[in-house]
Amino acid sequence: MDAHYRSTCYRVFINDQNFDLYIGQLNTSFQSYLKTSNVDVWAIITAWNPYSRLQTAQENQSAQDQLIASLVDFTWFNAVGIPDASQEWAPEESFCVLNISKEKALALGQKFKQNAFVFGHADTAPELVYCIEDMA
Predict the structure, then answer these.
(1) Tens digits of per-residue pLDDT, 68-88?
(2) Which of 13, 34, 56, 134 is most buried by a 10 A CB count?
(3) Which residues contact 59 (CB under 8 A, 6 or more apart)?
(4) What is the β-pairing status of strands 127-130 and 116-121?
(5) DSSP secondary structure string, the chain?
(6) Strands laid side by side in the 41-45 sheet
(7) Cα 83–85–86 angle (5° rounding)?
(8) What is the Cα gyration radius of the chain?
């Protein structure tokens, strides 16, 4: 499963720009956006398909709505996790949350029963953070 997360494209939609992010790879355009927007840290989080178990569209939307309610103190933008061609799962709707600590993102990932989330600093490549200890 680790390889699947690491080969996924995490596409972030901010205003009229799209940023394609990959684990361990710098995206200079995204980094420039973060710096000019005074963003120090960020995370990509979803509530879709808890513990990688497929849910119905209605179940996923309900979970996403609950996640949105948990993000009232943050600025966030829509994002999507897009699998590479070798993977057999559909893209998952997500949120790119700005200026959220790794601890808060981890707490949300655990609350919404996610295996992992993407986290980054304005000056580093995105990293994969596991919500479940025995997955790392």
Answers:
(1) 999 999 999 999 999 886 767
(2) 34
(3) none
(4) antiparallel
(5) -HHHHHH-EEEEEETTEEEEEBTTB--HHHHHHHHHTT--EEEEE--SSGGG----HHHHHHHHHHHHHHTTTSEEEEEEEE--TT--S--EEEEEEET--HHHHHHHHHHTT-SEEEEEETTS--EEEESSGGG-
(6) 17-21, 9-14, 75-82, 92-98, 41-45, 116-121, 127-130
(7) 95
(8) 14
